From TrEMBL:
Alphabetical list of InterPro entries matching this protein: Cytochrome_b-c1_su10_fun (IPR019182)
Organism encoding this protein: Phanerochaete sordida
CC per GO annotation: mitochondrion
Protein name (Swiss-Prot/TrEMBL): Ubiquinol-cytochrome-c reductase complex subunit 10
GO terms under biological process: mitochondrial electron transport, ubiquinol to cytochrome c
TM regions (residue ranges): 22-41
The entry's keywords: Membrane, Transmembrane, Transmembrane helix
Length: 73
C-alpha cells in the first residue's frame, strides 16, 4: 500500500513558483493590452503629445502640422 507524503512549503515558495510559471504569459498579455490602448487612444491630443510624438521612429507621423490659423481653439 502506498503512503501519502506531505511536504510543507512556505508561502514564498508557492508564490515564486506561481510567478515563474505565469510571468511570460502575463508580460505578453500586458504588452498587447498596452499596444491596444495606445492604438485606441491615438486620436486624442493628450496621448499624441505625451506619448506618440516622443517615439523615436514614428514621432514625426503623429506631429500636428495643422497651421494655427486653421485650429478652432
Amino acid at each position: 500500500m502506498s503512503r501519502v507524503a506531505y511536504h510543507p512549503r512556505s508561502t514564498a515558495q508557492v508564490s515564486q513558483e506561481f510567478f515563474r510559471r505565469w510571468a511570460p504569459s502575463m508580460a505578453l498579455w500586458g504588452a498587447g493590452a498596452g499596444v491596444f490602448a495606445l492604438y485606441f487612444l491615438s486620436v486624442t491630443p493628450k496621448v499624441k503629445r505625451t506619448f506618440l510624438v516622443k517615439v523615436p521612429v514614428l514621432g514625426s507621423y503623429y506631429e500636428d502640422k495643422t497651421p494655427a490659423s486653421d485650429k478652432p481653439f
